[in-house]
Design brief:
single chain
């Protein structure tokens, strides 16, 4: 008599030359997916110094390589997706920060030759719309 289908799967086994079954270790995520995740997280923390953009770009490439590997092996997909997402966020944050720095520099360019920090602060407030 056949029992109902089971949701648990038996561990994968291979047979040695002597015919003894040996359990294979589980397949883990690829190193490209892990590298993408690490680069994405580090890129998020370094995006304010614009290094995060470079790390994010590298992380996106490695994340897509990890996704391709996950498609073949079936392992590491979630790590690769997380790596791509964090890397894209790092890239976007770096671009936004660079745009903010360019905008700020353009608005306050006449303030770059002050005699004191107090004069610089007053000039910046004046150019940014404050008193």
């Amino acid at each position: 008599m056949k029992s109902g289908s089971s949701t648990a799967t038996a561990p994968r086994c291979t047979r040695t030359a002597g015919g003894v079954p040996v359990a294979r270790p589980p397949v883990t995520g690829g190193s490209a997916a892990t590298a993408s995740l690490v680069l994405g997280v580090v890129g998020l923390f370094t995006s304010v110094v614009l290094v995060g953009g470079l790390l994010g770009a590298a992380g996106v490439v490695l994340g897509f390589l990890g996704l391709r590997t996950a498609g073949r092996t079936g392992a590491g997909r979630s790590t690769a997706v997380t790596g791509v997402v964090t890397s894209v966020l790092a890239l976007v944050m770096s671009v936004l920060f660079a745009l903010f720095v360019a905008w700020y520099a353009n608005r306050t360019q006449s303030c770059y030759q002050p005699d004191s920090l107090h004069q610089y602060a007053q000039c910046v407030r004046h150019h940014l719309g404050g008193n």
